[in-house]
Amino acid sequence: MSRDTWNIDYGPLRGFYRDRENGWIFGVCAGVADRFNFKLGTVRVIAVISLLLFFWLTAAVYIGLTLLIKEKPLVYSGRRSEYEFWRRV
After folding, report:
1. Rounded distance, CA 88 to CA 67, Å?
2. How do the domains of the chain map onto residue ranges?
3. Is 71 left (phi over 0), alpha (psi -120 to 50) or beta?
4. What secondary structure letter does DSSP report for 70?
5. How far is CA 12 from the centre of its chain?
6. pTM of this prediction?
7. What is the largest CA-CA distance in the chain?
């Protein structure tokens, strides 16, 4: 599991999220890559090829996923002592 999907309070994040921090437009490709443990570049290449071959279907699916999938919550990935310090203040 990558470090960005680890919540210091609750352990690993579960589910399917859009990743706006690593995404280009709405983070759908980044969310798919993170959820299924694919390389982000590979998912983007597949999305672009699919967009060129099946424009309306791919655009509809992408917009649908953007509306249906929740945005990934922000996760602190630093040291535990820093986290506890800022939680107290």
Report:
1. 36
2. 3-88
3. beta
4. P
5. 13
6. 0.65
7. 53
Q: Is residue 5 within 8 Å of residue 15, measured between CB atoms?
A: no
What is the helix (H) or strand (E) element at residue 73, kind and residue range?
Answer: none
Exposure pattern of 16-54 as b/e (b: 16+ CB <10 Å)?
ebbbbeebeebbbbbbbbbbeeeebeebbeebeeeeeee
**For the chain, give me the number of helices (H) and strands (E)?**
4, 2
Contacts of 14 (CB under 8 A, 6+ apart): none
Q: What is the pLDDT of residues 40-86, one digit of tens each?
A: 999 999 999 999 999 999 999 999 989 988 888 766 666 777 777 77
pLDDT at 3: 46
DSSP-derived letter for residue 18 is B
